[in-house]
Amino acid sequence: MKLNNKIMLITYADSMGRNLKDLHAVLNTYYKEAVGGVHILPFFPSSADRGFAPKCYTKVDEAFGDFQDVSAIGNDYYLMFDFMVNHISASSEYFQDFLEKKEASAYKDFFIRYQEFWDNGEPTQEQIDKIYKRKPRAPYIEAEFKDGTREKIWCTFCEEQVDLDLTKEAVRNFMKDTLKNMCLKGAAVIRLDAFAYAVKKKNTSCFFVEPDVWELLHEIENTTAEYGAEILPEIHEHYTIPLKIASHSFWIYDFALPVLTLHALYNHTGEYLKRWLQMCPMKQFTTLDTHDGIGIVDVKDLLPDGEIEKVKEQMYQHGANVKKIYSSEAYNNLDIYQVNTTYYSALGNNDAAYLLARAIQFFAPGIPQVYYVGLLAGENDMELMNQTKNGRDINRHYYSLEEIREQQNRPVVRKLKELMELRNTDPAFHLDGGIEVEAKQDQLIITRKYGAASITLSADLTDFSFDIVSSGREGTQTYGY
Questions:
Q1: pLDDT (mean) for 105-118
Q2: Exposure string for 98-109, b = 16+ CB within 10 A, e = fewer
Q3: Domains identified in the chain, total number
Q4: Is the domain of 331 the same as that of 444?
Q5: What is the predicted pLDDT for the residue at 335?
Q6: Predicted confidence band at 319 (pLDDT cuts at 50, 70, 90)?
Q7: Region 134-163: what's the mean pLDDT?
Q8: Does the annotation count 151 as an active-site position?
Q9: Catalytic residue among 14, 49, 165, 234
């Protein structure tokens, strides 16, 4: 099924039930009209980072099912797959073969070897300082080969995620073959994870390196276009970079919306949110929550620095079980610019505030994505996080089928489902339509229009009440919340 303008669920293969069959049953039982597409987070065999260190892309992790299960979901919902452009698992046959055979390995060109990349085999301190990195030192692992020799290999993220050398033809062919296979297996959209790190050049930040990054994106686009699939580059950075990507006609993520919406609800003003809603493109996927924390870097200059610090503190004040330590090194947090919490708990587990946040998201330009924990208005999972000592697990609860059934009885879950169904069916949300936004004191009014259809959200940012009025050929209908 091809991409369409209906809400996309984001979920792991084993988070709503135990596997892909359970996930499909949950969707068909409870969310047939509320969900149009599914981003199944990496379901391939992986050695780390809950799927994001793939060993290969040719099969499904047996614990989740197989490609028949993926195809079955794809018959009912459009699908998004992840391609880790930047890296592959250190436990993959590619890297293991390289460690065993070194120069004789068929995969020796797959990886970035310091001795070949850097003059004299090592970067200078000045070059290290320029690199946009996730570690306090140069990004590498010390690889030990079967013959006993050791060598530095580029590694941006964790030790199990070894960077690929996209300048090499063998890697480009691997990339194209993988993308083609994903399209043939039913991907309507392919999310390019960590793509901004993929291009490395000496004496640069090695992050979103132009013009090389555009050549890479167009090469990927040319590969997937043949199969009618879209690509979605994933990047957390200053809002001008996603807007630049959008100007090249690519889909982008709206990662600014989560914090701007929290700011509006915490401070009872839509001033900054209004500005963003008026400038962001329709060709985007909106989020409030994902499998990662809530990104702060994405609102730089959309909020003044003082307001950014304020909203961060408010997340800890207003949030339920939202603490600074859960986003620190003590809980294995790589990114100090993210806050680990569910969106529902960031709003103090307040049903009214949460429903208004979702209404704002659904009226924003773009196709909304709803993370599975958010779908069920989930609270912070303290038990799981303290068990794993991984801060992000606070927002990665495993729901049993029984839990999911019970959650359907909660008013907030039922009302959210109604909002989702309205977003999926009202013609005024067409992506070729327009948007008007008014923000006066604590009142926010958003209108979406397409042809003769219009739909208006009128919200009170103090008591979180709102109503929706839909007008079209069949008359006017009002929904109160």
A1: 98
A2: bbeeeeebebbb
A3: 3
A4: no
A5: 60
A6: confident
A7: 95
A8: no
A9: 234
